[in-house]
Design a protein that fits this description.
Blueprint: H1 2-18, H2 26-29, H3 32-40, E1 42-47, E2 50-51, E3 55-57, E4 63-64, H4 66-78, E5 81-86, H5 92-97, E6 103-104, H6 112-115, E7 119-120, E8 125-127, E9 129-134, H7 135-144, E10 153-157, H8 161-169, E11 174-178, H9 181-189, E12 195-199, H10 200-209, E13 215-217, E14 225-227, E15 230-231, H11 236-251, H12 254-264
Parallel strand pairs: 1-5, 1-6, 10-11, 10-12
Antiparallel strand pairs: 2-3, 3-4, 7-15, 8-14, 9-12, 9-13
């Protein structure tokens, strides 16, 4: 945990040196959400806690991941504490709509349907979809004509873009909705589904974490999807504050450092349960 805190401090130091100091006060807020955040001294961020390397609960019970570091950096810039609200993926949007959380930072793809419900800040990264299966099953399916056939079962996270893409691209396959990725991996092991359709980062991580299962994933993503921070509709001041922070964060290279830490370096895997 100390290493993570020090890492965030280094990132914020670079941010402060490279940019004018971001000062947020009640007097200049003029924003109902920002007023609420400043009054309580806490920003509440919703995430699932089961989307490594975006976010996950470590063996010590702490939230870690790309999204966690990003949320902590934002809280530091606003001079408030960070409170992570653990919410299942299908309930993330309703959590911010109901005011349980101030924003979503949870590897959420920006889509037109979701944009009707929440306001997305411009992407903080681009992801892509892939398939995870055992090497034996993947080879069989490729030999027998692929996944778009009756009798094929593909797991996908409920209320996710993965589920939508399965419906569009392999409509003959049966979709098995799951609440989290561990549930999907268990179903693959038990041969109750043929594959998992998910973000390529999730599929690659599953291969690394489960060497005895002989999992494989595709070499190239099947799609490209922007990932963004989601905010409640109707608060332009709060939206602009978060957007300005995210744009500045990218410009000074701090996003690159986070991507390197969580997607290119596997040291954090030792913290997983």
């Amino acid at each position: 945990m100390a290493a993570t805190v020090n890492f965030i401090r280094r990132l914020i130091l670079v941010f402060i040196i490279a940019l004018p100091v971001l000062v947020v006060t009640k007097a200049n807020a003029e924003s109902p959400i920002l007023d609420r955040v400043l009054d309580r001294g806490v920003v509440k961020v919703a995430m699932t806690g089961d989307q490594p390397p975006f976010n996950v609960v470590s063996r010590s019970g702490m939230f870690i991941g790309y999204d966690v570091d990003l949320a902590q950096a934002l809280a530091n810039a606003m001079n408030v504490e960070l409170e992570i609200i653990k919410v299942p993926f299908p309930e993330l949007i309703s959590a911010v709509q109901a005011g349980r959380a101030d924003m979503i930072i949870s590897g959420m793809s920006i889509t037109s349907q979701r944009s009707k419900q929440v306001s997305f800040v411009e992407p903080y990264m681009v992801s892509g979809k892939s398939l995870l299966a055992t090497s034996e099953r993947m080879a069989q399916l490729e030999q027998d004509g692929g996944f778009n056939r009756l009798g094929i079962k593909v797991a996908a996270l409920k209320s996710s873009t993965s589920k939508t893409l399965v419906q569009l691209n392999i409509p003959k396959a049966e979709i098995v909705g799951v609440n989290n990725y561990e549930e999907a991996i268990k179903l693959i092991r038990e041969r109750k589904v043929d594959a998992l359709f998910a973000d390529m980062a999730i599929c690659k991580l599953a291969v690394l974490r489960n060497p005895n299962d002989d999992f494989v994933t595709l070499q190239r993503p099947l799609s490209m999807e922007p990932i963004g921070v989601a905010l409640p509709h109707g608060d332009l001041h709060f939206f602009n504050l978060v957007r300005n922070f995210m744009v500045s964060y990218e410009r000074v290279g701090l996003m690159t450092k986070l991507r390197s830490k969580w997607f290119d370096n596997g040291e954090w895997l030792a913290q997983l349960p």
